[in-house]
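Incident review: delayed structure delivery

Summary: a single-chain prediction request sat in the queue longer than the usual turnaround. Root cause was a stuck worker, restarted by the on-call engineer. No data loss occurred. The affected request and its eventual output are reproduced below so the record is complete for anyone auditing the incident later.

Affected input:
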Amino acid sequence: MEEKAIICEIQRKLDEIEKSEDVKILHCIESGSRAWGFPSPDSDYDVRFFYIRKPEFYLRLDNPRDVIEWEINDVYDINGWDIRKALILLHKSNPTFFEWNNSPLVYRTSPQWKTVKHIISGGPYLVKNGNVYVDLAEEKLLAIGGRNPRTAIGYTGDNNLIILTADGREGSSIGMTLTELANLMKSLGCVNAINLDGGGSTVMYVNGQIVNQPPQTGGIALSNAIVISKKL
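Output delivered after worker restart:
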């Protein structure tokens, strides 16, 4: 079967999934070698998608399946994640989520997904809808309490971005609790803000120079960062 015909068949199968499972597919991509331009002659089509169900589904008290494993054979490998599962894994910085979201080969997307420009994983909330909101138990992050170096990001009511680091574990600073950090972000005008990875990861660079005092001189090796650059 020619690739154009296979793409049409994938679209048909996605329609079938939506009808049979009573879901809305938010974003569907190719996740295999084909997406990155080096398929082998016997490569199948690794079709992955995020979907959402009707609101009442998320009010259930049991633990229903949060994946759809639709088809796997020599040509197609089709499965997807419920949006709740996807967001939980995003919160844990799951690499598969980022792979799917950044795939260059998109079979289907939605207006809701198209409006997402950037996705940042962190937690817990510090400020939510203008109010201090720190719930470690709900977000299962009990290990990050106490005074520590902190990193936070938020935005104000007039859409100014606030990125903050607070030093700790060194002579001139003892760090902050999450509640103290939340109150600080609110005092800076944030209407929504979240905590990011702190401790040794709390390092801020401006024009290539570290401007805070990390617990470890020069900061630790980091695999990712939030970068703000001037648009050329």
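Verification: The radius of gyration is 21 Å.
Action items: add queue-age alerting; document worker restart procedure.
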